[in-house]
Write a structure and sequence with these properties.
- It is a single chain.
- The protein has 210 residues and is an alpha+beta fold.
- The chain has six helices and nine strands, in the order H-H-E-E-E-H-E-H-E-H-E-E-E-E-H.
- The strands form two sheets. A seven-stranded mixed beta sheet has the order 2-1-5-4-3-8-9. A two-stranded antiparallel sheet has the order 6-7.
- A hairpin with a 4-residue loop joins strand 1 (52-54) and strand 2.
- It is globular.
C-alpha cells in the first residue's frame, strides 16, 4: 500500500478500531455488571403467581415448578453471544450434577415476546439441552418479574439502515436460583468459572437434604 493510500484510509481505520473497542468495552462491562437488588420484600408470593407462557403456548407460571430447585436465566433467542454462551454453560453445569440434576429445572425466560414465539423458543433451548424449559409472557408481566428479581433489560434500537425488527436487548446476564418453595435463594453473576453454578446447586441440595 502506498503512503498516499495509507494516509487516505488511516482515519477510517482508526475510527473503526475505536468503535470496536468502545462496543467491546460496553458489552464486557454490562455482561459483568452485578444485577440491581431484587425487590421481593413482601411480594415474594407474586414471583410464583405472575402469568407466563410456556414453549407450548400454554398459560403457566413459576408456581408450576414448585417442588424443584430452579435456575433462571433471562435473555432472548436472537442474542448474538451472551445468551447462547450462558445456556451452553448451564447445560454443562447441570450435567455435572449427575443424578441430582433430576431435582433441578433450568429455565430460560425470553424478554422479547414480540419476536420469540413459544414454539421457536422451545426449539432454541432444546438445542442446548432437551431438559431446559423456555418461558415468556407479556411485556408488563416480564417487567414485573424482572423487577422482583432485580433483572435489568432495555431495548437497543436497530442500527441506522437496518429494519426496526433488528433491535437488540441489553440485559442482566446472571443466573437466579430459586428454592422448591419458589423463593430466591442465590444469584450467580458473571464471569462464570467452570463448575461454579454446579457447586452452588450441590451446596443447596445438600443443605436441603439435612
Amino acid at each position: 500500500m502506498s503512503k498516499q493510500i495509507f494516509w487516505y484510509h488511516a482515519p477510517r481505520l482508526c475510527l473503526t478500531v475505536a468503535l470496536a473497542a468502545i462496543i467491546g468495552f460496553l458489552v464486557f462491562e454490562f455482561a459483568n455488571k452485578a444485577p440491581p437488588e431484587p425487590a421481593l420484600g413482601n411480594e415474594a408470593s407474586a414471583l410464583s403467581a405472575l402469568p407466563l407462557v410456556n414453549e407450548n403456548g400454554a398459560a403457566t407460571s413459576l408456581a408450576a415448578f414448585k417442588g424443584s430447585w430452579v435456575v433462571l436465566f433471562f435473555g432472548y433467542a436472537t442474542c448474538p453471544d451472551v445468551c447462547p454462551t450462558s445456556l451452553a454453560y448451564l447445560a454443562q453445569e447441570l450435567k455435572q450434577l449427575g443424578s441430582d440434576a433430576a431435582s433441578v429445572r433450568g429455565i430460560f425466560i425470553s424478554l422479547d415476546p414480540q419476536r420469540d414465539k413459544p414454539d421457536s423458543l422451545g426449539r432454541y433451548v432444546h438445542y442446548f439441552d432437551p431438559n431446559l424449559t423456555a418461558l415468556t409472557g407479556t411485556e408488563e408481566n416480564l417487567r414485573h418479574l424482572s423487577k422482583l428479581l432485580g433483572v435489568y433489560f432495555e431495548v437497543q434500537p436497530a442500527p441506522r439502515g437496518s429494519p426496526e425488527s433488528a433491535y437488540t436487548l441489553a440485559h442482566t446476564a446472571s443466573f437466579f436460583i430459586l428454592t422448591p418453595r419458589g423463593e430466591l435463594a442465590q444469584t450467580v453473576s458473571p464471569p462464570f468459572a467452570r463448575g461454579a453454578v454446579a457447586a452452588v446447586l450441590r451446596t443447596v441440595l445438600s443443605t436441603a437434604a439435612h
